[in-house]
Amino acid sequence: MERRGQQIVGGTRVKLALRRALVALAIAACTWAAGCHPSDRRQTSGTGETTTTPRVERYRLTGKVLSVDVNGRRAVIDHQAIPGFMAAMTMSYPVGDRRALERLAPGQKITADVVVTADSLWLEHIAILGTKP
Ligand SMILES: [Cu+2]
Question: In total, how many domains does the chain have?
Fold first, then answer.
């Protein structure tokens, strides 16, 4: 669903809340999708105790841009399987770097880093490979 023409004129707090909601939505959509299973972040140490140290993980993504939403800071990517993290799927990803987002256009092949924390994920280091299939 896309609401054209609707703009949020609230302050940073509203935008932040919105962004967090979108991130949560992206993770939920990803988790519900078949074959998509983010790795369990709780690890059991050798002594048997469970640690919950926050971790940042990075995965290499290769895929094709389907659509770009610069104001919404998101891009929909049809991406290949990400070993150990996610099956091949079409998914909307948050992109914090607005300039990177502005360079993107549907049809481009890209590589990027998927940065994953305990409660969010986004794309970084987006590189455009070309527009050939
Ligand atoms: Cu996914």
Answer: 2
